[in-house]
Amino acid sequence: MNPEPFLQLDRVIHEKGRLAIMSMLAATPELSFTELRDALGMTDGNLTTHIRTLQEAGYVSVAKSYQNNRPLTTCSLTAAGRKAFADHINLLEQIVRQIKPE
What we know:
CATH superfamily: Winged helix-like DNA-binding domain superfamily/Winged helix DNA-binding domain
Strand order of the largest sheet: 1-3-2
Number of strands: 3
CATH class: Mainly Alpha
CATH topology: Arc Repressor Mutant, subunit A
Helix content: 55-70%
Largest sheet: 3 strands, antiparallel
Order of helices and strands: HHHEHHEEH
Oligomer: single chain
């Protein structure tokens, strides 16, 4: 078994909570903080921390606005985030192919 794909996994994305966030954002152009929180069953603080980590890595863009006089925070993948996520999924597929008997 070749350990190289394991060593190339992006640790920012690979963490379970951040992988879930990236997966949801890859499937939808933009999601609100509330939609992400409710769908993933995370606390506000936990989600905020994961989003901040992804934002600092340049993978997620956060926009703050108002809707019906209420604050609205929305998240979306950046171009770099979309590429990093695709690369990560490709590495996971390589790993699965390595260990899956033909």
